[in-house]
């Protein structure tokens, strides 16, 4: 038995169906390193730890000064109405805490919640299905174009003992709607909590979602996140992930391109410094004809950090005319850092264009000398080249205000390199 | 062996101080001896040209002065304004006033040209205890220098040398030189690959910077550039040694006769003592 699972199960208060899901996880236990999906991210140390239920903690609003309205704030998994700013939402936009929707029996939310997760290698999705009772439910009505970004803020805060929470979010864009969502995963003080997040993204025909996620959690936090997105025809999903914080952060991004001409652009930076472990796992499925994905990921390994990237692309039979591109470049900034990259392309269709490339290298010594010969100190020159290496991910963002927010978060994280 | 000194220069410029003094410099790369006893004095305000055939060690000399890794100095010394230059890191040399215009300027996509140059200038100023320039002051300086080099605004907003033509890269080097205002500028084959207009622009940029407090070491294979940047002294470097020094007329002689006549000068016994 696992201390982790026992401690998480102790807080159970759900339905019979959720009980069955929880029992299945308890029966199967946590995945071991022989499971392909967990080969590079062992969970043995985590399994020995215990987490209590997370209490809500008062947090000063000053921390959120840079995050404009509309914003929805959760502290240790609990919705915080006082810190949230949801009073001036544009017409056609609805934003609610999940607990509220469930109390009002929102049929679509219930449907998402009842999704089944059967595989032993997806314990966190199963735990989420069994234990999550809170999250954000965002809906954009058909044809509604929202220019102002909606900010979802998830704050971890010290709460006495190590705590765990499970959050479930639903982002749904109806036909022809467009919106921008920024997820901020931040912390108010140092803590070693565990957060388990499951996000459902539904994009109807012609919908367009620009979705950024800035993960800058506390240095001792453990994060397990999964995003399951489904795109109908002509839907466009632009996504940027910055993995900058936490001791252990695993994100699974699963995107199903179900409708013709659906398009995914998913770019990200994995920054593993100190002793941090960052694992991002992409599972992209081309199901309909003429679908496309563009994936651009940059990994940085510094100190004794470890970055794991799995880029899985499957082009199903019948998805002819599809186009898939994956670029994963990695920079090793120290001899003790580790980077594992694994592009996996499976093609069952004809007439597709698919390309992938993965590299691991070091800073260009000639460029470093060039910068230093102009007067920049070595650490500043290294930081500048490292930032440049990641910049492509951020410059791809169309909205200049969003680009600025992500660039600032990236620069702030990279400044740790100078102090190392 | 004492350095090959230029007696005439010494006598007529006694009031001037040595800015750069290279004494019997020996260096090797990957176990191979490249410099075999280079001695050279450059005084404030002088332009020295270093000419020589390919493989003579010209670029090695430039790199060693700027502090590039990978060169082993086995003997000799380099003094810059009385300081041991070889003991300094590349950025310390830059702050002290040494600048190398690269033969092959490096493309660095993602690092903005202007941002980089301002950060570099301010890093130097900080070391020297001078106030940093704010963006307005910096922009003013940039505008003045750009006009001289006929650089388009567009290049400022791109990544460092990113997508620049060969000529643009070389002009960008001289532009950086103009903005950073070093005391000693080393031009490593800045003329290579330039058409006549680009070369004139480069020379204009350099000539605009000539003054009593600034010296130049112009490394070149061809005499052509020296028609536009008039040197005070010309040295011929061959097989790791300076085998001949003289006035500007030496460059013309090389142009007329090539480097073949040097063959009998490079044997160790033939080096003037």
Number of helices of chain B: 9
Which ranges of chain A are low-confidence, i.e. pLDDT below 50, for 5 or more consecutive residues? none
Amino- and carboxy-terminal Cα gap of chain A: 39 Å
- Overall residue-averaged pLDDT value of chain B: 89
The order of strands across the largest sheet of chain B is 6-9-10-3-11-12
* SSE sequence of chain A, one letter per element: HHHEEEEHHHEEEEEEEEEEEEEEEEHHHH
What composes the largest sheet of chain A? 10 strands, mixed
Total strand segments of chain A: 20
E-strand count of chain B: 12
| Quaternary status | heterodimer
Content-based structural category of chain B: alpha/beta
Element-level helix/strand string of chain B: HEEEHEEHEEHHHEHEHEEEH
Distance between the termini of chain B: 7 Å
In helices, the fraction of residues of chain B equals 25-40%
- Average predicted local confidence, pLDDT of chain A: 95
Could you tell me the strand content of chain B as a percent range? 25-35%
Task: Name the largest protein-protein interface in this structure.
Answer: A-B, 23 and 31 residues
Low-confidence stretches of chain B: 1-15, 269-273
Structural class of chain A: alpha/beta
Give the count of helical stretches of chain A: 10
